[in-house]
Amino acid sequence: MADLFTTALRVHQAVYEKSGGLVGHRLLFGNPTLLLRTVGRKTGKPRTSALTYARDGQSYIVTASNGGSSRPPGWLANVKAAPECEIQVGRRRIPVTARPTYPDDPDYARRWALVDKVNKGRYSQYQTMTDRPIALVVLDPRG
Protein backbone atom coordinates (compact mmCIF):
# COMPACT_ATOMS: atom_id res chain seq x y z
CA MET A 1 0.00 0.00 0.00
CA ALA A 2 2.87 2.38 0.78
CA ASP A 3 4.25 1.82 -2.72
CA LEU A 4 0.89 2.75 -4.23
CA PHE A 5 0.77 5.95 -2.17
CA THR A 6 4.34 6.86 -3.16
CA THR A 7 3.50 6.27 -6.81
CA ALA A 8 0.38 8.45 -6.50
CA LEU A 9 2.48 11.26 -5.00
CA ARG A 10 5.02 11.05 -7.83
CA VAL A 11 2.30 11.08 -10.47
CA HIS A 12 0.66 14.07 -8.77
CA GLN A 13 3.95 15.99 -8.77
CA ALA A 14 4.63 15.10 -12.41
CA VAL A 15 1.17 16.30 -13.48
CA TYR A 16 1.63 19.51 -11.47
CA GLU A 17 5.01 20.19 -13.09
CA LYS A 18 4.13 19.19 -16.65
CA SER A 19 0.93 21.26 -16.65
CA GLY A 20 2.84 24.34 -15.44
CA GLY A 21 0.64 24.39 -12.36
CA LEU A 22 -2.62 24.41 -14.29
CA VAL A 23 -3.44 21.02 -12.73
CA GLY A 24 -2.21 19.85 -9.34
CA HIS A 25 -2.70 22.63 -6.85
CA ARG A 26 -5.59 20.69 -5.27
CA LEU A 27 -5.44 17.36 -7.05
CA LEU A 28 -4.47 14.78 -4.42
CA PHE A 29 -7.01 14.48 -1.53
CA GLY A 30 -8.08 18.08 -2.23
CA ASN A 31 -5.24 19.44 -0.08
CA PRO A 32 -3.61 22.65 -1.30
CA THR A 33 -0.24 21.67 -2.68
CA LEU A 34 2.80 23.71 -3.64
CA LEU A 35 6.00 22.76 -5.40
CA LEU A 36 9.11 23.51 -3.35
CA ARG A 37 12.15 24.02 -5.56
CA THR A 38 15.49 23.63 -3.79
CA VAL A 39 19.10 22.89 -4.67
CA GLY A 40 20.57 19.59 -3.48
CA ARG A 41 23.08 20.34 -0.74
CA LYS A 42 25.42 17.56 -1.90
CA THR A 43 24.75 17.42 -5.64
CA GLY A 44 24.00 21.06 -6.41
CA LYS A 45 21.21 19.78 -8.67
CA PRO A 46 17.70 21.24 -8.71
CA ARG A 47 15.16 19.31 -6.63
CA THR A 48 11.38 19.65 -6.54
CA SER A 49 8.99 18.40 -3.86
CA ALA A 50 5.19 18.57 -3.90
CA LEU A 51 4.03 19.47 -0.38
CA THR A 52 0.74 20.22 1.34
CA TYR A 53 0.78 23.72 2.80
CA ALA A 54 -1.12 26.12 5.00
CA ARG A 55 -1.03 29.90 5.02
CA ASP A 56 -0.03 32.05 7.96
CA GLY A 57 -0.49 35.63 6.81
CA GLN A 58 1.86 36.11 3.85
CA SER A 59 3.88 33.01 4.77
CA TYR A 60 3.44 29.47 3.52
CA ILE A 61 3.95 26.65 6.04
CA VAL A 62 5.07 23.14 5.05
CA THR A 63 5.75 20.15 7.25
CA ALA A 64 8.91 18.03 7.16
CA SER A 65 7.01 14.91 8.22
CA ASN A 66 8.38 12.37 5.73
CA GLY A 67 5.30 10.29 6.50
CA GLY A 68 6.35 9.81 10.13
CA SER A 69 9.72 8.32 9.23
CA SER A 70 12.53 8.48 11.77
CA ARG A 71 14.49 10.48 9.18
CA PRO A 72 13.44 13.93 7.98
CA PRO A 73 12.94 14.45 4.23
CA GLY A 74 15.98 15.38 2.15
CA TRP A 75 14.48 18.71 1.17
CA LEU A 76 14.76 19.87 4.80
CA ALA A 77 18.56 19.58 4.70
CA ASN A 78 18.52 21.37 1.35
CA VAL A 79 16.64 24.41 2.70
CA LYS A 80 18.87 24.51 5.77
CA ALA A 81 21.93 24.63 3.50
CA ALA A 82 20.39 27.11 1.02
CA PRO A 83 17.32 28.86 2.45
CA GLU A 84 16.79 31.05 -0.63
CA CYS A 85 14.53 28.89 -2.79
CA GLU A 86 11.33 29.02 -4.81
CA ILE A 87 7.79 27.74 -4.48
CA GLN A 88 5.13 27.34 -7.10
CA VAL A 89 1.53 27.73 -6.02
CA GLY A 90 -0.70 26.85 -8.94
CA ARG A 91 0.85 28.68 -11.88
CA ARG A 92 2.56 31.33 -9.72
CA ARG A 93 6.27 31.08 -8.91
CA ILE A 94 7.36 32.86 -5.76
CA PRO A 95 10.93 33.36 -4.49
CA VAL A 96 11.01 32.58 -0.77
CA THR A 97 13.32 32.27 2.20
CA ALA A 98 12.86 29.02 4.13
CA ARG A 99 13.10 28.96 7.91
CA PRO A 100 12.78 25.62 9.74
CA THR A 101 11.09 25.83 13.14
CA TYR A 102 10.71 23.31 15.94
CA PRO A 103 8.48 22.88 19.03
CA ASP A 104 10.57 25.39 21.02
CA ASP A 105 9.48 28.18 18.63
CA PRO A 106 6.68 30.25 20.24
CA ASP A 107 4.55 30.07 17.06
CA TYR A 108 5.08 26.36 16.43
CA ALA A 109 1.90 25.04 18.12
CA ARG A 110 -0.30 27.58 16.34
CA ARG A 111 1.28 26.84 12.98
CA TRP A 112 1.13 23.08 13.62
CA ALA A 113 -2.63 23.39 14.14
CA LEU A 114 -2.93 25.22 10.79
CA VAL A 115 -1.08 22.60 8.73
CA ASP A 116 -2.56 19.66 10.61
CA LYS A 117 -6.08 20.92 9.93
CA VAL A 118 -5.34 21.32 6.21
CA ASN A 119 -3.96 17.76 6.14
CA LYS A 120 -6.95 16.38 8.09
CA GLY A 121 -4.96 15.33 11.18
CA ARG A 122 -2.36 13.24 9.32
CA TYR A 123 0.59 15.22 10.69
CA SER A 124 -0.46 14.52 14.28
CA GLN A 125 -0.66 10.84 13.33
CA TYR A 126 2.82 11.02 11.75
CA GLN A 127 4.24 12.63 14.92
CA THR A 128 3.13 9.58 16.93
CA MET A 129 5.16 7.37 14.58
CA THR A 130 8.53 9.01 15.24
CA ASP A 131 10.58 10.27 18.18
CA ARG A 132 12.07 13.17 16.22
CA PRO A 133 10.30 16.51 16.48
CA ILE A 134 8.77 17.20 13.06
CA ALA A 135 9.96 20.53 11.72
CA LEU A 136 7.64 23.11 10.26
CA VAL A 137 9.22 25.20 7.55
CA VAL A 138 8.08 28.79 7.17
CA LEU A 139 8.42 30.00 3.59
CA ASP A 140 8.47 33.80 3.52
CA PRO A 141 8.10 35.52 0.13
CA ARG A 142 11.09 37.71 -0.76
CA GLY A 143 10.74 41.21 -2.16
UniProtKB/TrEMBL annotation:
InterPro entries: F420H2_quin_Rdtase, Split_barrel_FMN-bd
Residues in the signal sequence: none
Molecular-function GO term, any one: oxidoreductase activity
Gene Ontology CC annotations of this record: plasma membrane
Family annotation (Gene3D superfamilies): Electron Transport, Fmn-binding Protein, Chain A (2.30.110.10)
Catalytic activities: oxidized coenzyme F420-(gamma-L-Glu)(n) + a quinol + H(+) = reduced coenzyme F420-(gamma-L-Glu)(n) + a quinone
PANTHER family to which the protein is assigned, alphabetical: F420H(2)-DEPENDENT QUINONE REDUCTASE RV1261C
Protein family membership: Belongs to the F420H(2)-dependent quinone reductase family.
NCBIfam families, per the entry: hi_GC_TIGR00026
Protein name (Swiss-Prot/TrEMBL): Nitroreductase family deazaflavin-dependent oxidoreductase
